[in-house]
Amino acid sequence: MALMITDDCINCDVCEPECPNDAISMGLEIYEIDPNKCTECVGHFEEPQCQLLCPVACIPFNPAWRESEDELRAKYERLEAAKAA
């Protein structure tokens, strides 16, 4: 499943540059994660980098966006193919 950023976000700017899929961007008030781009870092890292670095632990899994490991891997492959095109 994709990740999400909660209202506890303090806009510290740590997560955005660490996302290998450019899934994190500034929203109206706090950072947001585009679930269409979030692979939980599958294909890049063993763990989601944004979760590891977040100083306030405000990046849980998004229960509304459930995906299997295979689905995340397929999304990663699609995103990489689009970058290469």
Report a brief summary of the structure:
By secondary structure, this protein is an alpha+beta fold.
Question: In words, what does this structure look like?
Answer:
By secondary structure, the protein is α+β, with helices and mostly antiparallel strands. It has a single domain, classed as 2-Layer Sandwich (Alpha-Beta Plaits). The protein has 2 helices and 2 strands. The chain has helices at residues 49-53, 69-84, and strands at 24-26, 31-33. It has a two-stranded antiparallel ribbon. It is globular, with a radius of gyration of 12 Å. The N and C termini lie far apart (26 Å). It comes from Pseudoduganella plicata. One of its GO terms (molecular function) is 4 iron, 4 sulfur cluster binding. This is Ferredoxin. Its cofactor is [4Fe-4S] cluster. Residues 1-29 form the 4Fe-4S ferredoxin-type domain.
Helix content bin: 10-25%
Please give the CATH class: Alpha Beta
How is the main sheet built?
A: 2 strands, antiparallel
Note the gap between the termini: 26 Å
Question: What is the alpha-carbon Rg in Å?
Answer: 12 Å
Which second-level CATH architecture applies? 2-Layer Sandwich
The helix/strand order is: EEHH
Number of helices: 2
**Would you report the number of β strands?**
2
Low-confidence stretches: none
The shape, in one word, is globular
In terms of structural class, how would the helical and strand content be classed?
A: alpha+beta
Domain 4Fe-4S ferredoxin-type: 1-29
InterPro entries: 4Fe4S_Fe-S-bd, 4Fe4S_Fe_S_CS, PSI_iron-sulfur_center, YfhL-like
Cofactor: [4Fe-4S] cluster
Organism: Pseudoduganella plicata
